[in-house]
Amino acid sequence: NYLLEAVPKREQSVYIGLMNAASAPSLLFPFAAGLIVRWVNAEMMFISAAVLLAAGFIAASRLPETRRKS
Question: DSSP string of 2-34?
Fold first, then answer.
């Protein structure tokens, strides 16, 4: 897990709690997508999802290496 490797051991529980709290709104994304599909067709939603997926992959691939050397 990137987060566990990027933060000091003493502060891991705080960061995990913050990450969980920050990701909680993502539970509403399926409902929001269902509402958006009413105004936009499903094909446009799939294209949008593909673009967001590609952007996330590019952003994640640019993260610095945090693995500790043993």
Answer: HHHHHS-GGGHHHHHHHHHHHHGGGGGHHHHHH
Q: Are 2 and 63 in contact (CB under 8 A)?
A: yes
How many residues belong to the chain?
70
pLDDT tens column, 8-38: 899 999 999 999 999 998 899 889 888 888 8
pTM of the model: 0.63
Euclidean distance between CA atoms 56 and 48, whole angstroms: 12
Residue 63 neighbours by CB under 8 Å, 6+ apart:
2
Contact between residue 67 and residue 4 where contact means Cβ atoms under 8 Å apart: no
